[in-house]
Please model this.
Amino acid sequence: MPELPEVEALREFLDENLVGKEIAKVFPVAISVLKTYDPPLTALEGGDVTAVHRHGKFLDISTGAGLHLVFHLARAGWLQWKDVLPSGVPRPGKGPLALRTALTGGDGFDLTEAGTTKRLAVHLVRDPADVPGIARLGPDPFADGFDREAFAALLAGERRQIKGALRDQSLIAGIGNAYSDEILHAARMSPYKLAAKLDEDEVTTLYEALRTTLTDAVERSHGLAAGRLKAEKKSGLRVHGRTGEACPVCGDTIREVSFHDSSLQYCPTCQTGGKPLADRRMSRLLK
Model:
């Protein structure tokens, strides 16, 4: 799933390649991705793109007409930029293409989604806050006011395990399964540790790990074309998705805990005092 660093890199890419251009047509190839119907997508035709914003994991393409094309790539979605779009009207089918945005210059982008579970969501709204997922977002880790004290206030009273708290978009916007694993590894902290029981030093360590991990990931992705961002994310991860490999810090074997719809990876030596975590596959604690 694209998370804050990849979505921020996509925002930068679109800001450089899309702003100032005119939208010719938007084709909803998979109708299921379109979550709004008023205003219609035809309202975008002839409008100039004025800005591209990020709200957590959402991208927001703003036009001079006061409309916002907002989309969330979900678990298997992606944006593919094309300097020359295929001619003709794309036809619905079994392929990954979900939505195509054509510009008057002949270039544009496709939103695609792999797999059979379709969760990619596209909204056309007059105010981004009209998108339910944006309306419930917590603070962004890159916001000016997101300092150590603000982070501590968010965790105060949290009875959940820290892994689940970091992934909660209503608590902190933009962090998902992969970067929560990376943050906790950098902080040398068990994903099962209760957020409310962190002491002052642990809160500081976790905050610094969060900022450093996300900042480094954004910097690695800066300037990359959209098509290279997935590979960059994978190459930069130290524990997530690396079950069975050696920890780059201590050399211990990276372990995994599986759940019904996801998994986490961690290093026992770095994070849990050398003890493997129980693999409770049907646990609901980390949703």
The two ends are 15 Å apart (CA to CA).
